[in-house]
Amino acid sequence: MKGPIIREIKKEDNASVAAVVRRVLEDLGVPKVGTAYADKALDHMYENYQRPRASYFVVEDGSEVVGCAGVAPLDNYEGNVCELQKMYFLEEARGKGIGGKMIQMCLKRAKEYGFEKCYLETMPYMKVAQRLYIKNGFEYLDAPLGDTGHYSCPVWMIKEL
Known about the structure:
Elements: E1 5-8, H1 14-27, H2 45-48, E2 55-61, E3 64-73, E4 81-89, H3 98-112, E5 117-122, H4 127-135, E6 139-141, E7 155-160
Parallel strand pairs: 4-5
Antiparallel strand pairs: 1-2, 2-3, 3-4, 5-7, 6-7
């Protein structure tokens, strides 16, 4: 049996990606306002990443999308920094090393785009995700960079590329 694959998003993945992100956030009890849950772009992820220096990937297991993440320039920030965006995995995809592979894919693309740093925002109780970020070289920041609109995500991290 073929295992999960990471590939670039296709237009027909939009509904699946939005469903994955919303399901994960609902399962975690994350607020809907001030997080990715309420992002207008969530239902149009393919289109949102059809711009310079932006890529979005999905994890496909069989014919089902079970995870996703992307990189794009950090909004409302002066500097050569990208953001690791909307990285979510359904419960059945967690704990299998897929998250680490996805981060590496995103960071590789960020380097290809010439970014100097990669920034992310997360929730305080997402400790497993934070351990994964630290394992991949991210460090905590004392304040946010840019303005992503995710004011309900008070944990900020960054990595030199």
